[in-house]
Amino acid sequence: MIAWVLLPISLYNKPHSTNGRHAVTDETPKQQECPPPRTREAVDCWLRRWGRGDVVEGKEPLTRNDVERLIEANGGTAKDLDLSRRNVRGIDLHEMNLSCAKLQGADLRHATLDGANFEGPGAGQQTDMEGVKLFGARVTDRTELRRVQWGKKVILGDESGMGAREDKKWGECVEVYRTLKHWYQRIGDNDTAGRFYYRELECQRKQVWQEWREIFRRSLETVKKFREVARRSWEVVKYCGYEQLFGYGERPWRVVRAAVVIILGLAVAYYLLGSFVDPIRFLDALYFSAVSFSALGYGGWAPNPEGWARYMGVAESFLGVFTIALFLVTFTRKMVR
């Protein structure tokens, strides 16, 4: 009698089935594991798992913590880690090992990469690295920097951020620019190498200027610093002259500008202060200055200068020959690349 009573209850408690299959229960399945972050989809999977959906949608940039966790999820290495076309702008990645990471198309503008390891064929290719800090970064022959966007003036963060530092170590900027210059020279991209060479010498000029100001300040306290001030002053004048006259050999048209300034300036001096037997017009003074500068001869009209104008015309001839030769050397050096 008891068995007949319990039988309907046991039948009611059995799970219902459809076509021989058990009905689906309310249990939540286990969260699916994400594959190693070596593709964009895998990286998105990990970021969503960590609640970083805004990064996946491009609303927020990656953080240092995100990159470190992705490296950990990749087995503790950055090899083949896919950070391509990611927003990594402005974050601090100093001394991080990014060797062989995929950074194609990544936005690394103004990021701090001091001491980072960029060794490997995937590092840096086609990335936007305008204003990054690269002091001490490991850039080797295996690093790929072709088609990297360095910005219009190729001024890195190591140089632009130096003004806010109390200890302005311009030598760090010189080292960074020199490393990049050598890398582009090795692959035959002399135009980009020349741009980094220009920034290298600019940092050297700023370093010399900083040293000169410090020495000048100290020289006010003692006369014994006079010789050092004079030497540094000459270096400042030399580098400023190189930059203004021919742009360290990278700006040949600045030589043309200097020639025009010399001819016009001396023409005004000849006209206002010159000593000629016969009165001359300004066009005559300009003609005298231009012919003296080019050392071609005065032709049918031969002025008759007296006093200092005669000797200044001779000096202008020597100055003109030197300027023309400087333009030819600078222009040829630029064109043969």
What do you see in this structure?
With 337 residues, this protein is mostly helical. It folds into three domains: 35-151, Pectate Lyase C-like (3 Solenoid), CATH 2.160.20; 167-247; 253-335, Helix Hairpins, CATH 1.10.287. Helix content is 50%, strand content 2%. The protein has helices at 2-13, 40-49, 53-56, 64-73, 157-160, 170-186, 190-219, 226-246, 253-273, 282-294, 308-335, and strands at residues 17-18, 21-22, 275-276, 305-306. The strands form two sheets. A two-stranded antiparallel ribbon has the order 1-2. β1 (17-18) and β2 (21-22) form a beta hairpin. α6 packs antiparallel against α7 (190-219), α9 crosses α10 (282-294) and α10 crosses α11. The termini are far apart. 26% of the residues are buried.
Unreliable parts = 1-30
Question: Looking at CATH, which topology of the largest domain would you report?
Answer: Pectate Lyase C-like
Q: What proportion of the residues form beta strands (DSSP E)?
A: under 5%
Number of domains: 3
Helical residues, percent: 40-55%
Structural class: mainly alpha
Short summary:
By secondary structure, the protein is an all-alpha fold.
Key words describing this protein structure:
337 residues; mainly alpha; Pectate Lyase C-like; Helix Hairpins; two-stranded antiparallel ribbon; 11 helices; elongated; disordered N terminus
Describe how the helices and strands are arranged:
Blueprint: H1 2-13, E1 17-18, E2 21-22, H2 40-49, H3 53-56, H4 64-73, H5 157-160, H6 170-186, H7 190-219, H8 226-246, H9 253-273, E3 275-276, H10 282-294, E4 305-306, H11 308-335
Antiparallel strand pairs: 1-2, 3-4
Helix pairs in contact: 6-7, 7-8, 9-10, 9-11, 10-11
